[in-house]
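U., I forgot to send this yesterday:
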Amino acid sequence: QVQLVESGGGLVQPGGSLRLSCAASGFTFSTYVMKWYRQAPGKERELVAAIAASGGSTNYPNSVKGRFTISRDNAKNMAYLQMNSLKFEDTAVYYCNAKAQYVAGMEYWGKGTLVTVSS
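Result:
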Protein backbone atom coordinates (compact mmCIF):
# COMPACT_ATOMS: atom_id res chain seq x y z
CA GLN A 1 0.00 0.00 0.00
CA VAL A 2 2.57 2.52 -1.13
CA GLN A 3 0.98 5.92 -1.60
CA LEU A 4 2.07 9.26 -3.01
CA VAL A 5 -0.67 11.87 -2.79
CA GLU A 6 -0.23 15.29 -4.40
CA SER A 7 -2.12 18.39 -3.37
CA GLY A 8 -2.00 22.13 -3.89
CA GLY A 9 -2.81 22.41 -7.58
CA GLY A 10 -5.33 24.87 -8.93
CA LEU A 11 -5.89 27.96 -11.06
CA VAL A 12 -3.36 30.77 -10.84
CA GLN A 13 -2.65 33.91 -12.85
CA PRO A 14 0.59 34.43 -14.78
CA GLY A 15 3.28 35.67 -12.42
CA GLY A 16 1.60 34.03 -9.45
CA SER A 17 2.78 31.27 -7.14
CA LEU A 18 1.66 27.83 -5.99
CA ARG A 19 3.09 25.33 -3.53
CA LEU A 20 2.53 21.65 -4.30
CA SER A 21 2.77 18.98 -1.61
CA CYS A 22 3.40 15.24 -1.85
CA ALA A 23 2.52 13.02 1.11
CA ALA A 24 4.30 9.66 1.07
CA SER A 25 3.54 6.46 2.95
CA GLY A 26 4.23 2.72 2.80
CA PHE A 27 7.98 2.85 2.08
CA THR A 28 11.24 4.14 3.53
CA PHE A 29 10.92 7.71 2.33
CA SER A 30 14.37 8.84 3.47
CA THR A 31 16.12 6.38 1.12
CA TYR A 32 14.32 7.56 -2.04
CA VAL A 33 15.16 10.34 -4.46
CA MET A 34 12.08 12.53 -4.86
CA LYS A 35 11.13 14.09 -8.17
CA TRP A 36 8.40 16.20 -9.68
CA TYR A 37 7.30 15.65 -13.27
CA ARG A 38 4.68 17.39 -15.35
CA GLN A 39 2.69 16.54 -18.45
CA ALA A 40 0.84 19.05 -20.59
CA PRO A 41 -1.86 18.01 -23.09
CA GLY A 42 -0.30 16.44 -26.18
CA LYS A 43 3.21 16.53 -24.75
CA GLU A 44 5.57 14.00 -23.18
CA ARG A 45 6.03 13.88 -19.44
CA GLU A 46 9.05 15.92 -18.38
CA LEU A 47 11.15 16.18 -15.24
CA VAL A 48 10.90 19.56 -13.51
CA ALA A 49 12.78 18.97 -10.25
CA ALA A 50 14.71 16.34 -8.30
CA ILE A 51 16.12 16.19 -4.80
CA ALA A 52 18.53 13.72 -3.23
CA ALA A 53 17.35 11.36 -0.50
CA SER A 54 19.19 13.41 2.11
CA GLY A 55 18.00 16.70 0.65
CA GLY A 56 21.61 17.66 0.01
CA SER A 57 21.38 18.34 -3.72
CA THR A 58 18.75 19.40 -6.24
CA ASN A 59 18.42 19.47 -10.01
CA TYR A 60 16.23 21.52 -12.38
CA PRO A 61 15.91 21.95 -16.14
CA ASN A 62 16.54 25.39 -17.57
CA SER A 63 12.82 25.90 -18.18
CA VAL A 64 12.11 26.21 -14.45
CA LYS A 65 15.50 27.01 -12.93
CA GLY A 66 15.29 30.09 -10.74
CA ARG A 67 11.49 29.86 -10.49
CA PHE A 68 10.82 26.43 -8.95
CA THR A 69 12.24 25.02 -5.73
CA ILE A 70 11.96 21.41 -4.59
CA SER A 71 12.30 20.52 -0.92
CA ARG A 72 11.60 17.64 1.42
CA ASP A 73 10.98 16.93 5.09
CA ASN A 74 12.06 13.37 5.85
CA ALA A 75 10.66 13.53 9.38
CA LYS A 76 7.19 14.14 7.91
CA ASN A 77 7.52 11.99 4.75
CA MET A 78 6.70 15.05 2.66
CA ALA A 79 8.04 16.58 -0.53
CA TYR A 80 7.19 20.02 -1.89
CA LEU A 81 7.44 22.06 -5.05
CA GLN A 82 7.35 25.83 -4.68
CA MET A 83 6.48 27.43 -8.02
CA ASN A 84 6.96 31.17 -8.50
CA SER A 85 6.63 33.50 -11.49
CA LEU A 86 4.33 31.04 -13.20
CA LYS A 87 3.89 31.17 -16.97
CA PHE A 88 1.19 29.90 -19.34
CA GLU A 89 3.53 27.11 -20.44
CA ASP A 90 3.68 25.78 -16.88
CA THR A 91 0.10 24.53 -17.23
CA ALA A 92 0.17 20.75 -16.77
CA VAL A 93 -0.66 17.86 -14.50
CA TYR A 94 2.14 17.63 -11.94
CA TYR A 95 3.19 14.23 -10.61
CA CYS A 96 5.19 13.26 -7.54
CA ASN A 97 7.71 10.45 -8.06
CA ALA A 98 9.84 8.44 -5.61
CA LYS A 99 12.90 6.55 -6.91
CA ALA A 100 14.93 4.13 -4.80
CA GLN A 101 18.60 4.99 -4.56
CA TYR A 102 20.80 2.90 -6.91
CA VAL A 103 17.95 0.53 -7.86
CA ALA A 104 16.71 0.68 -11.45
CA GLY A 105 12.97 0.43 -11.93
CA MET A 106 11.97 0.68 -8.27
CA GLU A 107 9.84 3.78 -8.22
CA TYR A 108 6.38 4.99 -7.32
CA TRP A 109 4.02 7.59 -8.77
CA GLY A 110 1.24 9.76 -7.48
CA LYS A 111 -1.95 10.35 -9.44
CA GLY A 112 -1.18 13.98 -10.17
CA THR A 113 -2.56 17.42 -9.45
CA LEU A 114 -3.59 19.93 -12.12
CA VAL A 115 -1.97 23.34 -12.33
CA THR A 116 -3.61 25.83 -14.69
CA VAL A 117 -1.94 29.17 -15.38
CA SER A 118 -4.43 31.52 -17.00
CA SER A 119 -5.43 35.17 -16.96
